[in-house]
Amino acid sequence: MKVVIIGGGIAGLTMGVFLRKQNIEVVVNERAIGMPIQGQAFLMHSDGILTLKELAAGTNIQLESNFIDTYSLNRPDGEEIMHLHLKSWQLVKRSSLIRFLYSLFPVAQIKE
Question: Angle at CA 84, nearest 5°, toward 97 and 67?
């Protein structure tokens, strides 16, 4: 079976890596030239981090992340609306996640 994935962002690359692990031939088509690293960062639960580590099993590839133990939501004037203590959450930069996924996927199988 051969699969073409349209979009080389987080979802497309993750699906591509999962399919390759199942011995399915995959090509990812990305409209942008170069690695699409725009965007900021997001919180990811430890279960998501574990899934990504499973994708990298057998390699030395590491995902850069930082543990986060508190979350604060503030109004534009600085007034705090909500403050939460978090467990098992990590901050992942979008650029770090994209680089991680690209390193798990053969460059020749990403078409720009």
Answer: 35
66 vs 58: CA distance, rounded Å: 23
More confident residue, 112 or 79: 79
Are 90 and 46 contacting, i.e. CB atoms less than 8 angstroms apart?
A: yes
Nearest to 97 by CA among 66, 57, 59: 66
Overall pTM surpassing 0.90 (yes/no): no
Number of continuous H segments (helices) and E segments (strands) in the chain: 3, 6
Q: What DSSP designation does 9 have?
A: S
Question: CA-based diameter of the chain, in Å?
Answer: 55
Whose CA is closest to 95, among 52, 10, 33, 37? 37
Rounded Cα distance, 43 and 67, in Å: 9
Residue 94: how many other CB atoms lie within 10 Å: 16
